[in-house]
Design goal:
Elements lengths: L1 H33 L11 E2 L4 E6 L2 E7 L5 E2 L2 E4 L7 E5 L11 E8 L6 E8 L4 E7 L7 E5 L4 E6 L8 E7 L6 E5 L2 E6 L11 E4 L14 E9 L5 H9 L12 E5 L16 E3 L1 E4 L14
Parallel strand pairs: 1-4
Antiparallel strand pairs: 2-3, 5-16, 5-19, 6-15, 6-18, 7-12, 7-16, 8-9, 8-15, 9-10, 10-11, 12-13, 13-14, 16-17
Amino acid sequence: MAMRGRKAQTAAEYLLAYGWTLILVGIIIFALFELGFFAGSNFATRAQPDTCTVVKTINSSPALRGDCSGQLPQSVASFNPLLGSSYISGASGGAFPSGHGAFSEFAWVNTLNNNQETIFAFGGTAQGAGIVFSIAGGVNSGTLLVSDFYKSISGVVGGVNDGNWHFVGVVHPANSSEFDMFVDGQWSNSSIPGSVDLYNSGSFWIGSEPVSLTKQYQYSGQIANIQLYNTSLNGQQVENLWLGGIGAAPSTTEGLAGWWPLNGNGDDYSGNGQVGIPYNVTFVTTWTGTYTAPSLPQ
């Protein structure tokens, strides 16, 4: 009996000594689950910068080179206007859409901001010709907005400023006044607001409208994998691009005007050499907690 009593006492002392430690460990593990730390994307192989690029040669069509399987990027671009002007900009080349030509632009975005904020803009302010793709704001409404440098053109509620990653884009056919909006691979809205004039020899801006304008509507959050085409992608191409995930290579290299993965730098991997220079932008590796790999509804 005395032996059993001593064993029981030892067990009780063990629980008293280590019980709180076990409870604390359990709380930490639960918190990590809630934060998405154990999500599969946290342990997937990450693509380094320059993993996949487009190569152009004189005698052949543009082609992808490298590992273009859609690995998750090592890092994404993080914009914070509180640090000052926070954006990426560079000179656009002749491959950009111009006049009343077709264009398509897509990006992965993650923001909780309730104010209007710019995803991508290009054109010439002196010429008064350009396009701005932005999120118009509103608490958890995240209205996608297309405008020129001076007036709103089209908008659609997409719920994209909820703090999770979303794939957003706009497609504009040539010589058309129609703008098709897409959210997470699905067509969301089409409107006919009037024509837009494009200018392909100006500049481009990521995370801000042209800094020469009175209001830049700077972005607050994270952006990845911006792709610009001087063609209008069809619905299947858009869906395939979304299903490829945040690290997807362009759905086609024909008509690819610019491709900025924003994986550690502002370089253009379309083969057109339109390098973006970051200003008060950081490239962060801890971005996967709010990302869910795309999949078709069952």
